[in-house]
Specification:
The chain is mainly alpha-helical. It is 68% helix and 3% strand. The chain has a five-stranded mixed β-sheet, sandwiched between helices. Strand 1 and strand 2 form a beta hairpin.
Length: 858
């Protein structure tokens, strides 16, 4: 039963005013008003509760203890007061007294459950039950849901389950609860803070907006300020983070999180003495508080310093071996360090203690999937892949990684000290869980932790990106992260990796696009000294891509200014703990000069992109085509967007000759366009329809010279090369396709055919083995073809006999297979008599006579 019912209207108004002070951040005013009410004899537990809450926020723990101990004899049946008492005792490190409060709550509720049936008491029961180790699902369903159904107008009935969801890392449920709650409580800073936390892993813009609203409603909201400091640390803005932490410490000089974050700042600044002082301050009232080392370690791990982070989690577990947040974080740290056996074991231990820990559940489930992977190993790499994929392109993965190792380790003067683990996932969700602990991570193709790389396989992303470029990029991270002991900002690490993609293959990496051009000339460049924030505060997926691109341009600019040795020197300084901006100023130049020079450099590059083109945006009417588009083009004859749209219109009307003119003009204006549906690709469709094969081939080859992943163009080039029996070209473009999607049968069919004509039995056998793994429509023909090539290489190869038997098993009347089997059995040393296949590489070509053809090349 709420004691507010016994207060007069005036007293209730006064209490509401005091509550408003607490929620708006006027903690001193709240304490003063509550003290006056208590000293004047105001009846009511809420005055005491408000005063204790404000004292706790201000770090006045001894004063809060005095308030609590004076109130307890008067409100002996209060469970809300005891729950606050638990918080007071915990802050002071008095574990036994804190535990006693929970036991008393349990006993009081057990004796008279009907007495504690209002919403606030139900929430207090739920929170106490969770602290006592109750099943979170039962607390949610039996207590929190009931409280919210009966009293949806009480803010705590939304806050408590939202905080529980956040604690279990169920961000989707937390987001749902807080989004609904904010409709009822639009001016409640704690609700907006809940939204910020719920969307932090998935929606940076929404998080920033919610944080801003929280601080608008309560400028002294400690949680929001700490979250702000956390983000500033991620963005390398250490000085600003220090200012925010100073604000928190002015509110609460004993703030454990603020002191812990200060220790993180000192660590990042290589100030071991300052780190020790801040850590000691965090432990001032509770020397055995595991949350201190847990927070320090978690933040260091977020900075990719996993070994240092893991050491702090171990320190936290020494203080409290059952501190599940530390154990869960240590599990992820070890998995990212490649220490998988202990990492998986800890994940299982967390799940055994907390069946609702989403990350632990995901990891344990993932381990079962990874256990089915095949492992490929050599002196430098351990690669884990799905077994079928390992058969198809595992050797190619190992070859690519070793080429990257030779090129990049030498360039950056770094030697691998241990084998690098690479895990490639055919399921994007598994990749996200291995990488982030939770599903999501859309847009990430691969991630490197220093000595561990995780990547999506072509199956996970539909063969949409060049996986070889991705692995090259990620291995470059291995080199730079190890060279700096993981002490480098994200922008520099990403910038070097994108830059090195381009050095390895001119079609890899990122290039200037019309969108990037507009962003640069529109003033959207981020200052070099704050470039990590470009990743954190990206307004869209395009802005994230722009952050990668700008970072690579900065690296390119630095190398132009100081050479590759200048960048190597920066990396060496980072290895020694020197802050990034100081290292750049020391070896590249003053930051102000660099920022000004880089801006001029980037703008010059942007202006060079299609300088004669008209980049004015198409008006809505013109976007619909027809007469409005024709009118627009009359006034803007050099509008690339207009010309492209006009060309598409004509292609749709099958006006092939007419379509060529606007498309050729678009190519003339913007020859660098490597987008999937670029003018060269559209032009190739017109030439194909007109059977202008030479012109079609020329358009496609222009695409191939720019694009790393335009599979339709590569496949068509393979087909054209096959038609003119240019087998080396077939092999070249087949190789280009396999770098994007080795899981597609089409290139392997054409590669087998080319190798067959070139009498390259080994290459043909490789392609045929791969096709047999892809559930072929005609396995008999493939087994026969494979047996034929194996027999040609080695007359007594038992594999040849196995495959020809499989061919006969699939097609008992297969005469050519029967003849080959007879030769093998009789040991005939003569050359195989089967004639060369006359198979068209056209998509509709089929081999109906089973004369050694490789089948439909689609």
């Amino acid at each position: 039963m709420s004691l507010l019912l016994f207060l007069s209207p005036i007293a209730r108004a006064d209490l509401a005013g005091c509550t408003a002070k607490l929620q708006s951040g006027d903690y001193a005013g709240c304490i003063e008003e509550a003290t006056q009410a208590i000293e004047s004899g105001q009846f009511g537990e809420p005055w005491r509760l408000l005063k204790i809450q404000a004292q706790l926020i201000r770090g006045e723990y001894q004063e809060a203890l005095a308030t609590f101990e004076m109130a307890l004899p008067r409100y002996q049946s209060s469970i809300r007061l005891r729950l606050l008492g638990h918080e007071v005792y915990s802050a002071l490190g008095r574990r036994d007294d804190a535990a006693r409060m929970l036991e008393q709550i349990n006993r009081l509720v057990g004796a008279r459950p009907w007495w504690y049936s209002d919403a606030l008491d139900l929430v207090a029961q739920g929170r106490a039950a969770l602290l006592l180790g109750a099943d979170p699902r039962q607390v949610l369903e039996l207590i929190y849901d009931k409280a919210r159904r009966e009293s949806p107008g009480v803010r705590e009935t939304w806050l408590a389950p939202g905080e529980l969801a956040l604690d279990k890392q169920d961000y989707a449920e937390a987001g749902r609860l807080f989004t609904e709650a904010v409709k009822r409580f639009p001016n409640d800073p704690d609700i907006h803070y809940g939204i910020a936390r719920a969307f932090a892993p998935s929606d940076g813009q929404r998080t920033m907006a919610a944080l801003a609203k929280t601080l608008e409603l309560n400028p002294n909201h400690v949680g929001a300020l700490l979250m702000q400091a956390d983000e500033l640390i991620d963005g390398e803005n250490l000085a600003e983070a220090e200012e925010v932490l100073a604000q928190v410490l002015s509110i609460n000089p004993a703030s454990v999180p603020a002191c812990s974050y200060s220790a993180v700042l000192a660590h990042l600044e290589n100030d071991s003495e300052g780190e020790a002082v801040s850590r000691s301050r965090a432990l001032k009232f509770n020397i055995a508080n595991p949350a201190v080392d847990h927070l320090i370690g978690r933040k260091l791990s977020q900075k990719y310093r996993f070994a240092e982070g893991a050491a702090h989690q171990r320190a936290a577990l020494k203080l409290d071996e059952n501190h599940l947040p530390a154990k869960a974080q240590l599990s992820q740290d070890l998995l990212r360090l490649g220490e998988v056996e202990e990492g998986w074991k800890l994940a299982r231990e967390v799940l055994e203690k907390d069946a609702y820990n989403v990350v632990a559940f995901n990891l344990v489930t993932l381990q079962e999937n990874i256990a089915k992977f095949r492992t490929l190993e050599d002196e430098f790499f351990i690669v884990r892949m799905e077994a079928r994929e390992a058969e198809i392109y595992g050797e190619r993965v190992m070859s690519l990684l070793n080429r990257a190792r030779v090129a990049l380790c030498d360039k950056y003067d770094m030697k691998l000290t241990s084998r690098v683990t690479v895990e490639i996932f055919p399921d994007q969700k598994d990749f996200a869980i291995r990488t982030f602990g939770l599903p999501g991570g859309d847009g990430f193709l691969g991630v490197c932790f220093g000595n561990v790389i995780t990547a999506n396989s072509p199956a996970a992303i539909g063969g949409a990106s060049n996986w070889e470029a991705v692995l090259w990029h990620e291995f470059c991270h291995v080199v730079t992260l190890q060279a700096t002991r993981n002490r480098m900002p994200r922008w520099l690490s990403e910038g070097i990796s994108v830059y090195e993609e381009k050095q390895a293959n001119k079609t890899w990496g990122q290039s200037m696009t019309p969108v990037f051009r507009e962003m640069i000339l529109g003033g959207e460049l981020t200052p070099v000294g704050r470039l990590s924030m470009a990743f954190l505060r990206a307004r869209s997926a395009m802005h994230v891509q722009f952050a990668y691109y700008q970072s690579s341009l900065v690296v390119e600019f630095m190398i132009q200014k100081a050479g590759i040795e200048g960048v190597r020197k920066v990396l060496r300084d980072l290895h020694e703990g020197i802050y990034i901006n100081a290292a750049i100023e020391k070896h590249i130049g003053p930051m102000k000069e660099i920022e000004a020079g880089f801006e001029a450099h980037a703008k010059a590059l942007a202006q060079k992109l299609a300088p004669s083109a008209d980049w004015a945006p198409l008006p809505p009417a013109a976007q619909r085509g027809g007469a409005a588009l024709a009118a627009w083009l009359k006034e803007h004859p050099d509008s690339v967007a207009g010309l492209m749209l006009h060309g598409q219109e004509l292609l749709a009307e099958k006006k092939w000759n007419e379509a060529k003119q606007p498309l050729l003009r678009a190519i003339e204006l913007f020859p660098e366009d490597d987008s999937p549906n670029n003018a060269n690709w559209l032009l190739s469709q017109a030439h194909r329809a007109l059977e202008e094969m030479k012109e079609e081939q020329a358009a496609l080859e222009r695409i191939a010279a720019m694009s790393a992943d335009h599979v339709p163009a590569f496949l068509r080039l393979m087909e054209l090369a096959g038609e003119r029996k240019d087998w080396p070209a077939v092999l070249t473009f087949g190789d280009r396709i396999l770098a994007v999607n080795p899981l597609s049968p089409s290139p392997h069919r054409l590669l087998a055919m080319a190798a067959d004509y070139m009498n390259d039995h080994a290459a043909a056998a490789r392609a045929l083995r791969t096709l047999l793994l892809m559930e072929p429509a005609d396995p008999a023909q493939l087994h026969f073809d494979l047996a034929r090539h194996l027999y040609a290489m080695k007359k007594d190869d038992p594999a040849a006999r196995r495959h020809v038997l499989r061919a006969i098993e699939e097609a008992p009347r297969f005469q050519e297979a029967q003849k080959l089997l007879l030769r093998i059995v009789e040991g005939d040393g003569q050359k195989e008599g089967a004639s060369k296949p006359e198979v068209s590489p056209k998509p509709d070509g089929e081999s109906s006579n089973r004369r050694g053809a490789v089948g439909d090349p689609r």
